[in-house]
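call fold(seq) -> tokens
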Amino acid sequence: MNRTSPATPATPTPGANLTALRDHNSALVLGLLRDAGPDGASRAELAARTGLTPQAVSKITARLRAAGLAAEAGRRASTGGKPPTVLRLVPDAAHAVGVHLDRDALTVTLVDLSGAETATRTSPLDLGAGAETVLDAVTAEVAQVRAAAGGALLGAGVALPGPLDHRTGVLHRVTGFPQWDGFPLRDALAGRLGLPVTVDKDTNAAALGLVLRGRAGPAGSFAYLHLGTGLGAGLVLGGAVHRGARTGAGEFGHQVLRLDGPPCPCGNRGCIEVLCLDAVARGDVAEAARLLGTGAANLVRLLDIDLVLLGGGTLLRDAAAYAAGVRDVLGDTGGGVPVAVTPAGDRTVVEGAAELVLASLFGRESRAGWDGAGVQGVGGAEGAGEDRGNRAGPAGLTHPSPGTSRP
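ret:
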């Protein structure tokens, strides 16, 4: 089991001292306790960070303790008066499942509330084998890891190649696998697993995990470029994942670099994905890195981002060469944008898939890119009703769960 220290994301949205927003405020406080790690935080510190009154924080933390989500962690040194009590998150009070459906492999992980790995399983998979075969494989692997969960199991986040609609969990013409077009993956898996399920593109999930776990450092806007069995990008703009109106943002691999180039499974010719994967197949890492760098330079010029992060199974096999090649091309743009390999390594996507479940529990909906019209479940007012897509969390705490379905 691999334990990692909780990251410290940027300051969350301020709280509001309104009874109707009690669960929104609970999520903010719980998120701050996650950020604080084992050292915890005092009620005064929580009040200062959220803008809530000390009385409101006391009521919230009492509920969190009663639910088993928070516990006392000793006292701070006194600066005059009674030493303040420190509270901490109880990581094993609940767990989330992350599922990475790649074209040729399935990875399933179980994480606790701190995001630390409890169990992980990886097995071969043919994404083109048909819906029943794929659903059977996911169901079996999730059953294996969920046996290690103590406390509540919040749900499953599923990340896979796009395009797809993350609001409804319905797949579109997944590149190379058009037979998935129109398949309601979210609802089908929710019925199989008996859990709320959230579905998103692999690169969006990866970007979400990177930003929520603080793995991109202080960069407010960055691109995660994923070179594996395909090529795509996850975009974080202004601190939030950018999906686009139809979840179409980040189709990085299908920018056309050569009008008369080889045909791509997407239907176009000369896409950077097909060119890059052809170079990989020839063993020409330098050319693949140059092509990746050319696409990255286009992205930097277009969006003026702060950082380029690289990942994906193919890239990670020769990470230093790819990073050097992309840096060489980006150096010509004159922007001085740094390039780095994702610090999460081959867990980048599956960690992000788990964060699809945890984001709303910790009040991170805005960073997940779930604000906006038409997104299922946005709005954390207690008692808002099941018609808004809310679901019950641990010990009855209700929290918004965009893109989820209850079987």
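Residues 1-11, 372-407 have pLDDT under 50 and may be disordered.
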